[in-house]
What does this fold into?
Amino acid sequence: MSRLIIAQAQDDLGHLARHMSHLMHRVLQSRFSSGDKSADWSPAVDVTETADRYEVVAELAGVRREDIEVYTEQNYLTIAGWRGDPTCPEKVGIHQMEIEQGQFLRRLPLPTDAEADKVTARHRDGLLYISIPKRPAPAK
It folds into this structure.
């Protein structure tokens, strides 16, 4: 019997830790976001740099390509769109909901050497890949 109680307590602590991590992520995200409160959630992104470009990968599982907007303005890269409810529309009862849905928005400041008018994006397997070329360095 004690094994069952310990296993249940570990499950409860794991759930609590995941929930606290999610809440902290949302607090930090809202603290350091662009201040636009029109979004329900913000996708996770990875940003890397090569010699000639910046690469941004946004996690957009369940978002259709036609529901994504990518644009640059005022030295920011903006990723915006919509993710609907991925579950069955006829819900009898909800036991747990962790997949965020609704409008999303992510704004990233562009580096000074980014060529904002040459940004390209492609969507594959739930990930959005954005490539931002760098301006050539001035000749010395």
